Amino acid sequence: MKNIVIAAGYATRLGELTRNFPKPLLKIGKNTILGRMLDDIDGIPEIDEHIIITNHKFAPVFEEWKNGQKYKKPITIIDDGTETNDTRLGAVCDLLYAMEKQGIEDDLLVVAADNLLFFSFQDFVDFAKEKQTSCIMCHEQPSVEKLQRTGVIVVDENMKVLNMEEKPQVPKSHWAVPPFYIYLKKDLETVRHSVENGCGKDAPGNLAHYMVEHTTMHAWPMSAGRFDIGSIDTYYEACDLAKEGKI
User: Fold this and answer.
1) What is the pLDDT of residues 103-126, one digit of tens each?
2) Which of 39, 41, 107, 128 has the smallest C-beta neighbourhood within 10 Å, fewest atoms?
3) Tens of pLDDT, residues 28-66
4) Which helix (H) or strand (E) holds 36?
């Protein structure tokens, strides 16, 4: 299984912090956002490589960071060739680019690089092995306002995904979808042809939505919370929590 980290965005909402520096490599306490995630994923036996897809502007920064890492699994940095937010490929196209560039024919763990997690991805991988299907994560979100800004799924009693909507005005459930996915090898052909068949390009949830309509998928309820670093305020909040030893 390959761990593909989508890290090609420009994080414009973080202002000067990320004007010339990638958000995943910002420090939270003594570690980086990405480092905290890889510390967990690197210990998963099924994972044999970390593939980080970034843009041309930040690729040298990631390469320099890579040279100082000592993970068990090799790290590959892929440059998608873009240099501005206006010319970015979008998360789905970045994933497809990485798959083509590396000739990937393995199961995939696909993760966004801007979250702090309070659980292990091992449980997610185990869930996918049990179900033998591609999978997405989910968590209960009581706020209708927040559900209207994310992907929302409907599931059956076995957590098989019956329906997914992006940013629904009238959510059909309280199951929200964070940006973490497992796509099995048997579904990669469907993934490869997703964009040419109408899948949205920008958000990673666009692919999950497309896949729900074209193959069988299950949803794993997160066993603990996460901290989404989407703005300069949430970044400084995470730094304060780290200083206090709370994360």
Assistant:
1) 999 999 999 989 999 999 999 999
2) 39
3) 999 999 999 999 999 999 999 999 999 999 999 999 999
4) helix 33-41
